[in-house]
Specification:
225 residues; Ubiquitin-like (UB roll); 6 helices; Aldehyde Oxidoreductase, domain 3; 5-stranded mixed sheet; single chain; 14 strands; alpha+beta; 2 domains; globular
C-alpha cells in the first residue's frame, strides 16, 4: 500500500525555482532528511541543485541527519539562513516597522541595572554593490519557535537575564529596522553577552531569509555562488 503524500513547504530560493510554495511527496516508513531531499528533487528537478544545502524540519522542528521522521503532518525544506511558540512577548516575526525603544520596554524592570539592545538595519551596500532594498521571508511559526528557544536557552544559561527578539519580514528600504534584540540583566556584562549570543544564534538557526537587490540583480543571501 502506497504511503499517503505529505506536504513539503518551500521558501526563498526554492520557492522561486519551483514557482510554488509547496509540493507533495510520498515517503517510506522511517524516512530521514536524506529521503526527503531525494523525494523533493524527484518531484521537481528544478530543485535538485538546491536541496542538498537545506535542512529539514518536521512540524516546525529541525530533524537531525539520520533521524527518522515519524507521523509528521508537515515538512519544510529550510535553506541556509541569512545570517517558539510563545511569540507574543519573547519572540515575534512582524510585518510592521519595529520600534527598538518599545522592544526594550518589554525587558525593562526594577531589578535590572542594564538594558542592552541590538538593532539591525538595512545598509546601503553589500557584495561590493549599492543595495536598493531587501526582502525578508520567514517560515513564521517555526521561526518564532526557534527564536523563543534561543531566548529561553539564554535566560537559563545566564541567570537574571530577560531576552526579547523581534524580526521584520517583507520589503525593507535602506535604513529600515530589520531586527531588534533586547536584553536586561542586573549587570551590564551579562546583558552584553546575552545580546551578542542571541543575534549570533538567530543568524545561524532561525528560518529567515534575506534577498538583496542591487543594480546587477537580486541574490538570496546564503544561496549565492
Amino acid at each position: 500500500m502506497a504511503a499517503d503524500p505529505i506536504k513539503v513547504l518551500l521558501f526563498a530560493a526554492l520557492r522561486e525555482a519551483a514557482g510554488r510554495d509547496r509540493l507533495e511527496i510520498a515517503l517510506p516508513p522511517d524516512a530521514t532528511p536524506a529521503d526527503v531531499r531525494r523525494a523533493v528533487a524527484a518531484a521537481d528537478p528544478s530543485l535538485t541543485h538546491l536541496v542538498d544545502v537545506c535542512r529539514v524540519a518536521a512540524d516546525e522542528r529541525f530533524v537531525a541527519e539520520g533521524e527518522a521522521i515519524e507521523d509528521a503532518r508537515e515538512i519544510a525544506l529550510i535553506p541556509p539562513v541569512s545570517g517558539g511558540h510563545d511569540g507574543p512577548r519573547r519572540a515575534r516575526i512582524v510585518s510592521a516597522p519595529i520600534d527598538p525603544a518599545a522592544v526594550a520596554e518589554f525587558v525593562t524592570r526594577k531589578d535590572a541595572g542594564a538594558v542592552v539592545t541590538f538593532t539591525g538595519r538595512v545598509r546601503d551596500h553589500a557584495r561590493g554593490e549599492a543595495v536598493t532594498h531587501l526582502d525578508y521571508e520567514a517560515y513564521v511559526p517555526m521561526a518564532e519557535r526557534v527564536l523563543d528557544g534561543i531566548a529561553a536557552d539564554l535566560e537559563r544559561a545566564i541567570p537574571g537575564t530577560k531576552v526579547v527578539i523581534r524580526h521584520r519580514v517583507g520589503r525593507l528600504a535602506v535604513g529600515d529596522v530589520a531586527v531588534v534584540v533586547a536584553v536586561s540583566s542586573p549587570h551590564r556584562a551579562e546583558a552584553f553577552d546575552a545580546c551578542r549570543r542571541a543575534i549570533e544564534a538567530l543568524k545561524a538557526h532561525a528560518p529567515i531569509w534575506k534577498k538583496e537587490y542591487a543594480a546587477s540583480g537580486a541574490v538570496w543571501v546564503g544561496m549565492g555562488p
